[in-house]
Amino acid sequence: MELMVFEDERGSFHEIWQRRRYADLGIDAEFVQDNRSVTRRKVLRGLHYQIEHPQGHLVTVSHGRVLDVGVDLRPNSPTFGRWTANELSDSQPRQIYLPPGIAHGFCVLSERAELLYKCTDFYYPEDEGGLLWSDPDVAVRWPLTDPIVSDRDNAFLPLKDIPASRLPKAPFGQTT
Questions:
Q1: Which positions are annotated as active-site residues?
Q2: Which of 48, 55, 123, 149 is an S-S bond match for 119, by CB 3.0 to 4.6 Å?
C-alpha cells in the first residue's frame, strides 16, 4: 500500500496507521505491540513466525531500503509454501501487511535500515518458529549473494522438515 505523504519546506509527514482507512481495505486488525529493528547493510533477518500465537505484521521502513519477504505457512492455504517480496524504503513510503501465519524476514539494501512493524499478538520467545531463509524448495530470490545471517536463522529447518505441529496455528482466511 502506498502511503499519502505531505511535504513542504519543513520536511514530510505521513500516517503509518489509521484504523478506518485500513478497515476499508479489509485489514481490521487490533495491533497490540509495535517493534523497531535497526539493521545494517547486507544483513538478512528471518524467516520468523510464532506457532500458537501467530502475529499479523504491518511493516513500514522509516529509514533506508529493504526487501521484505513473507512465506505463507497457513494450513489449507492455496499459497502454502509460496513467498512474496516487496521493496520498502523511506524514499517511496509504502507498507505491507502480512496476516498471521506468514513467516517474515527481510534483507537490508541500504547502508542502514529502520523497520517499524505493528503486531496483532504479543511476542512469546518460547513460541517462536523459523523457516530456513535459504530453503531450496521455497526458493526466495534474495538480492544478496553473501548475506550476514545469525547462527539461529541459519539453523532453522527447510519447510519439508518442519513438523506440522511446529507450523503456525493460523487458519487460511484469518486476517487479524
A1: 48, 117
A2: 55
Taking CA atoms, 45 is separated from 6, 24, 99, 134, 151, in Å, by 31, 31, 18, 12, 11
The strand pairing partners of 37, in sequence order, are 115
Q: Decide: pTM greater than 0.85.
A: yes
Could you tell me how far CA 37 lies from the centroid of its own chain? 12
Render each residue's pLDDT in the chain as its tens digit; 176 residues.
Answer: 666 777 778 776 767 777 778 788 788 888 999 999 999 999 999 999 999 999 999 999 999 999 999 999 998 899 999 999 999 999 988 999 999 999 999 999 999 999 999 999 999 999 999 999 999 999 999 999 999 999 999 999 999 999 999 999 987 766 55
Number of residues in the chain: 176
